[in-house]
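Final report, closing paragraph on structural work. Over the funding period we assembled a curated collection of sequence-structure pairs, and we close with a single example.
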Amino acid sequence: MNARRLGGLITKETLQILRDPSALGIAFILPLFLLLLFGFGVSLNAEHVPIGVVADHPDPTTDPLVAALRHSRYFEVRPLPGLKMARDLLSRREIDAILWLRNDFTRQTLVNAPASIGLIVNGTDANTANLVEGYVMQSWMIWLAQQNQVASHPLGLPVALQFRIWFNPALRSQDYLVPGLIAVIMTLIGALLTAMVVAREWERGTMEALMAAPVTMAEILAGKLLPYFVLGMGGMALSVALAVFVFAVPLHGSVLILALASALFMLVALGMGLLISSLARNQFVAGQIAIVVTFLPAFILSGFIFDIRSMPMAVQIITRILPARYFVSILQSVFLAGNVWSVILPDMAMLALMAVFFLGVTLARSHKRLD
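Its predicted structure, as stored:
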């Protein structure tokens, strides 16, 4: 590989990037738009859930429990006169849950017997139903602690549960989702940067002139890879800055490790784009292939939203060939937990192997001919 010829190709590609705003748009505008859209639009939290509270016999014992629900940001409490009305509202989706304090609730509480309390939750959305159940249990524990302070004898559960949440103590879904979003978005951006841009050269006829130049195929690929690598890393830096300063995601790990892992992943994504460009010489086809092959699998199977361990074994095996799976794991570890080497090193090794594979296959398939 001749350094002078490679420098000329890099200069040519850089000038083409500066003259063509679409590449800059893919590298900076598209990740900015997608990260803001998904970062603010996708949430696994459930707040201000409408819940109906039916107390058969309201009294000073039930009032603190209702107040605990009312003061929680997770609920919008609607006191209801009867269970029949509550069920009607639940069936019409005007409320999402019913808390039923039966007529013997106070009496059983005072004699330290199991209190008759009922919780009916709309299970159409299983995630919201599980969250509501946990939130009600949390409010119940707060009420129980308050009652124990004023009662002459302990009430309720014989075991007091004390728990700590590591890595995301505030349970903010953005802290969990935004690092995964960066991986998913940069998978698409990296593939699009090379796939569509190279396909555009085939459409415009400039690739034929490049093929006729006295340069090797390896120099052509390196000349295209390096400028878009710098461009993609710029988009990655923008995404990390948005995560830290806009979404307030903590960054506990090393910035150097994050940069190194991002560089490996960008090589993988650009290698996928070059491979796509060797198969499709039309921008529309290249864009469609990039979306189907990179974005959709990364969004669904990378562990960014859905836990891989809960997937069927066959699907878990498929996820092992997805680069985004390993980059999501690295990002979530570096952002939320720090430099967990038992996670980072194996994932970086897989990204390095994938980079060698995609770039090697692309070089093997690329020849200086037009067929």
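DSSP finds 14 helices and four strands in the chain. The longest strand covers residues 49-55. We thank the funder for supporting this effort.
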